[in-house]
Amino acid sequence: MNPNPEDLDVCVEDLRSVCRDAWREGLLSGCNGNASRRLPAPGDGLLCVTRSGAAKGRLTARDCCLVDARTGEGLSSEALSGGPASSELGMHLELYRALPHCGAVLHSHPRRLLALSLVVADQEDFLRLPLFEADVWRARLGFAPALPPGGAELALAVADAGRAVGADKPAGAAVWMAGHGLCCWGPSLADALCMSEELEHLAAVQLLALHSSCA
Question: How many CB atoms lie within 10 A of CB 80?
Answer without folding.
Answer: 23
